[in-house]
Amino acid sequence: MWSKSINPATGEIIFEVPYIDEAELQAKIETAARAYKVWRNTPLVEKQRLFTSLMEVLEAKKWELAKLDTLEMGMPISDAPGDVSKSIGTIKYFRDNAETLLAPKAFDEGGAKGRIVYEPLGVLYCITPWNFPFNQVIRSTIPNIIAGNTVLVKHASNVPQAAMALEAAFLEAGFPEGIYTNLLIPSSFSESIIAHRAIVGVTLTGGDKAGRVIGSLAGKYLKPSVLELGGSDPFLVLDNNRMDEIVKAAISGRMSNCGQKCNSSKRFIVLEKYYEEFCQKFAKGMSELVIGDPMDPATKVGPVAKEEMLEEMAEQVADSIKAGARLLTGGVRLDRPGFFYAPTVLADTKPGVRVFDEEVFGPVAPVAMARDIEELIELANASRYGLGCSIFGDDRAQIEQVMSRIEAGNIAVNKIVTSYAFLPYGGIKDAGYGKELGERGIKTFMNEKVIVEG
After folding, report:
1. Which terminus, N or C, of the chain has the lesser number of Cβ atoms within 10 Å?
2. Catalytic residue (choose from 72, 228, 359, 436)
3. For the chain, percent of residues with pLDDT exceeding 70
4. Which residue segment(s) compose the domain that 370 sits in?
5. Domain contains 82
């Protein structure tokens, strides 16, 4: 079996590498387990030195790595360096703050005096996605590595070059073998990995279908897990006097990385008095985006990453139009090589319409009208996901009213939802459970050991 890299701008296979076999897998797990025994006791100052070295390696290779983003999953080359830059920022944050985040906490209350200390657990199995081939991996691994754990990473099978390059960066930075290990394996190997005695926890960033499988396996083998799954984030338009600015934000929130982000704005819900103006300006702006070769710096919209995703998206759009959605722009696969789909806006969507009910991972934007604030909140929460929500408006009291009732793990006011290294990140409902990043993220796979002294 092979991991294949297909350039989504051309549809051509550009790289192939064979999967490792079971014997090689077992050897890598054992190496990671041995490395953990040393790494957990490695002084923090040495870990910080290696983190600094890793930052330097990634910075030096930024454009080389960015090109892999573009070639393997179609991210426009104008945006791809940001994937690496954000990775470097995450590494820096945990390098600089690990000592404070993991400091023992003293207590003296209720007749008990002592301290709480935080200790690593062992080897983690991390399953990561293709849409940000570097930052998504760094986000789920770096906090755990500086905490003293080691990681085995199953990257997405369609970005093998990025996966191999990241492991090479760790080794070039001087990390001992086994601290960060890339696994070129099929998904069918996951159960044997999770079941292994050395594995102490599991993370997955991906779709909720995969999340149900991995979450059930983690439960079966009593391994703690963090699942960062899909999203269908609402973008809410409240009372305002700046529609042009809001439409610009809406286009950015939907079309960043060609709409292939878990926390993209995916459902646009607009108060009735602004609805037609928003639809008209939104559709016009989407139709004017520059589509083309993602290696061209002028390109704003590249291809979607996989042909099967494009085909599913086309079905979602067609079924939604049949259900009453109004096509304002796009709605077609572009007549050119590769996996290109026209930026699409569908008005008059609502619950029961596929593009409203399902996550759409690509350049398709469903718009729904809300008669008042109550209906807007109801529509925003009418999703099985609860990852993020972007709220735009000028009336602070109105914003507070909406914000307090939205079912989501992350809310952004007058800006687009994003993640920050210092803040916990994750969703609710079918968007998963647990948190990455921040203090919560670094402590997820640590033993919170309580010491009471007499």
Report:
1. C
2. 228
3. 100
4. 233-413
5. yes
Report the 10 Å Cβ neighbour count for 443. 17
Whether residue 60 is found in the same domain as residue 166: yes
- 228 catalytic per annotation: yes
E strands of 105-183, at which residues?
105-109, 112-120, 123-127, 150-154, 180-182
pLDDT at 278 over 90: yes
Does residue 163 share a domain with residue 250? Answer: no
- Across the range 23-47, mean pLDDT stands at 98
Q: Are residues 167 and 296 in the same domain?
A: no
- Quick one: 161 and 20 in the same domain? yes
Tell me the whole-structure pTM to 2 decimals.
0.97
Tell me, what CATH number does 81's domain have? 3.40.605.10
Comparing C-alpha atoms, which of 20, 314, 360, 11 is closest to residue 158?
11
pLDDT at 358 over 90: yes
222 and 240 fall within a common domain: no
Tell me what pLDDT residue 454 has. 85
Side-chain half-sphere exposure of 259, counting CA atoms within 13 A:
29
Interval 195-233: pLDDT, tens: 999 999 999 999 999 999 999 999 999 999 999 999 999
The fraction of the chain above a pLDDT of 90, given in percent, is 99
Residue carrying structure tokens 């718009």: 367
Tens-place pLDDT, residues 157-210: 999 999 999 999 999 999 999 999 999 999 999 999 999 999 999 999 999 999
Q: Which of these is catalytic: 126, 258, 262, 389?
A: 262
Q: Give the mean pLDDT of 274-279.
A: 98
The answer to whether 272 is a known catalytic residue is no
**How many Cα atoms occupy the beta-carbon half-sphere of 49 within 13 Å?**
8
Per the domain annotation, does 103 fall within a domain? yes
Looking at the structure, do residues 184 and 244 belong to the same domain, yes or no? no
Q: Is 111 exposed, middle or buried (0-12, 13-18, 19+ CB in 10 A)?
A: exposed
pLDDT tens-place string over residues 90-104: 999 999 999 999 999
Q: CATH number, domain at 324?
A: 3.40.309.10
Closest CA to 145 of 170, 117, 115, 116: 170
> How many residues are present in the chain?
454
Q: Which two tokens stand for residue 138?
A: 């760094």
Asked if residue 426 belongs to a domain, the reply is no
Same domain, 345 and 408: yes
Residue 314 tokens read as: 């086309």
